[in-house]
Amino acid sequence: MTVQELPGAADAYRPTPPPAWKPRTDPAPLLPDPEPYRVLGTDAAAGADPELLLRLYAQLVRGRRYNVQATALTKQGRLAVYPSSTGQEACEVAAALALEERDWLFPSYRDTLAAVARGLDPVQALTLLRGDWHTGYDPREHRIAPLCTPLATQLPHAVGLAHAARLKGDDVVALAMVGDGGTSEGDFHEALNFAAVWRAPVVFLVQNNGFAISVPLAKQTAAPSLAHKAVGYGMPGRLVDGNDAAAVHEVLGEAVARARRGGGPTLIEAVTYRIDAHTNADDATRYRGESEVETWRAHDPIRLLERELTERGLLDEDGIRAAAEAAETMAADLRERMNADPVLDPMDLFEHVYAEQTSQLREQSAQLRAELDAEGEAR
Amino acid sequence: MTTAAVKPASMAQALQRAMRDAMAEDPAVHVLGEDVGALGGVFRVTDGLAKEFGEDRCTDTPLAEAGILGTAVGMAMYGLRPVVEMQFDAFAYPAFEQLISHVARMRNRTRGGMPLPITVRVPYGGGIGGVEHHSDSSEAYYMATPGLHVVAPSTVDDAYGLLRAAIASDDPVVFLEPKRLYWSKAQWSPEAPSVVEPIGRAVVRRPGRSATLITYGPSVPVCMEAAEAAAAEGWDLEVVDLRSLVPFDDETVCASVRRTGRAVVVHESTGFGGPGGEIAARVTERCFHHLEAPVLRVAGFDIPYPPPMLERHHLPGVDRVLDAVARLQWEAGS
């Protein structure tokens, strides 16, 4: 006998709504537009600041040259590995240029270029990948967190820093960068949730470059888009053409400004493509066809901006040559300095484990000292 | 001479007082975690802090341990001194990646440019009748990670002093709070709390001549009781309370073992791969010629932490300690 069949049960049953429950927010304003936002080649381009476009162009050209040079350095054994951002330069450059000096950048391992575009010495930016130390710069000095190798774990750091800055009354914004694969990690979820609950001044920039090493986005998520995930956290999501430097800069700029004035976090998905393999150690031909790569080459971020600038008469052959030459100078300097062997002190191994060395580490450093002395005498 | 009020206080009260005093002295000190605010923590260790210092200083976070510790990293990067609560030992596991990949390494990664003064409070260990995932002793995992300090108080005095030292430390400290000692009381003066030596110094809780019991945290009272019981039999046991597992105080431990010639390491966590193996090896390497017997270990069994109705069979008690002492081939009175 079921409950309904009990005598009188049907009369007694009164369905009631859960007490005092309603959705907290109307999700509609948080949803991204279905089409990635574009500026270049559209009417919106007329509103773009020519000076900004020229700055973006110079940085894009420099960034491409940087990617090519760093990849070449892996072939010469000067870098242990390099995860190229060729094809993604617009995201990297716009990210750097959207920030004020007091703001903080939280890059992933692929975002060396964002750090360089923010003004970091290219050699310092490559220390991790060369292997002479894990971080080649003082994060506080440049307000660039160490390049993060574990996926998405830097995102909660960005939230905590932005939250701390706000508590101190500083109008500092943190920009946290992550790839499409990183959005599957638990730390991505926890960071976005904390940021939204705390209304922390953070901007999350997802560079959807199509693949997490070899796994395509379709196997990474069933979400309509990565920007759609924002609605679940109660923050706005934006979709932008990641190869359109002007569009990325505009969308990021709006999100940074919104965060700065206390509006809380934003999730931005920049749709782009990784032209090179995951790193120089990866064989991309095993998981994608050349025709796919070619369609993206036709949508190259430098070409898009170059076309816009030349059509509007803001850039001519001389300007193009000047940008290329400046990039070449940077590459030559980088090559020369990276070809010098770094001077390493093995005793550094024990220097920065704790503020004060433990007695165990003092013993071990004495052991290494003795080994080094013996090596020196043997020579 | 002022006489400070000395009255019974619990370890939980001393820990709360330590955070309160640290927060009052330094506006950079922030407490965060699940339930630390209005509730005062499930063990009431953070009781009253949110009321006194506001929700920005003592913050109820979303329920996410990686998020709690990960945001604490960012807060420390901006100059704050976060004190995070993990609520229960096994609840800390989701935060392990943050702890191991970032908290422990940030100073090293940045060549000292970005130290992280974070205190991670972990109520730990068994004996309170907790259901699964509420009684683990995870110290071996923390000990195996360079860059972390690992401490465990066993007295009300040390609970206060060590937590103050942990919060003041420029390095990350995993602060293991023995749950079953939370309500243990001692005469204690909250107005003039004693200050312990900097993190890393063991203490001889009970001097003795015949053998050394090396222990820490919740096993310290067990060893003190065992030493008293053994004394009735004419055995004179020294009890060394490590207080700090990292850094490890070789000096105090080895000085004791050289005096007594015999040692037993006592802890709740599993023996295989546990802290006792490391301690026994260190003692053997340094005191071999002084030893009259192998260094023995009394540890929890090598099993997942048992259900509460069986935990008394797992936890090392007085009898098991005394059995080990007997296995040191004791010559009473010699």
Question: What does this protein structure show overall?
Answer:
The complex is a heterodimer of chains A (379) and B (334). Chain A has 379 residues and is α/β, with parallel strands linked by helices. Chain A is built from 15 helices and seven strands. Chain A has helices at residues 9-12, 50-75, 89-97, 112-117, 122-125, 127-130, 139-142, 154-167, 186-198, 230-233, 245-260, 290-297, 301-311, 317-338, 359-378, and strands spanning 104-106, 174-179, 202-208, 211-212, 215-216, 237-241, 266-271. In chain A, the strands form two sheets. Chain A has a five-stranded parallel beta sheet, sandwiched between helices. With 334 residues, chain B is an alpha/beta fold. Chain B contains twelve helices and 14 strands. The relative contact order of chain B is 0.12. Chain B has helices at residues 11-25, 49-53, 65-77, 96-103, 106-109, 139-143, 156-168, 219-232, 250-260, 275-287, 311-314, 318-327, and strands at 7-10, 29-33, 58-60, 81-85, 119-124, 149-151, 173-178, 185-188, 203-206, 211-215, 237-241, 244-246, 263-270, 296-300. The A-B interface holds A 133-135, 138-141, 145-146, 150, 153, 155-165, 167-168, 174, 186-187, 190-191, 193-194, 197, 348, 351-355, 358-360 and B 30, 56, 61-62, 64, 66-67, 69-80, 82, 94, 97-98, 101-102, 105-115, 146-147, 149, 169-171, 200, 246-248, 250-251.
Rg of chain A (CA only) = 25 Å
Order of helices and strands of chain B: EHEHEHEHHEHEHEEEEHEEHEHEHH
Q: β content of chain B, as a range?
A: 15-25%
How many helices of chain B in DSSP terms?
Answer: 12
Pairing-aware structural class of the strands and helices of chain A?
alpha/beta
> Spans of chain B with pLDDT under 50 lasting ≥5 residues?
none
Shape, per Cα inertia axes of chain A = globular
Order of helices and strands of chain A: HHHEHHHHHEHEEEHEHEHHHH
Shape of chain B: globular
Unreliable spans of chain A: none
**Measured on Cα atoms, how large is the radius of gyration of chain B?**
20 Å
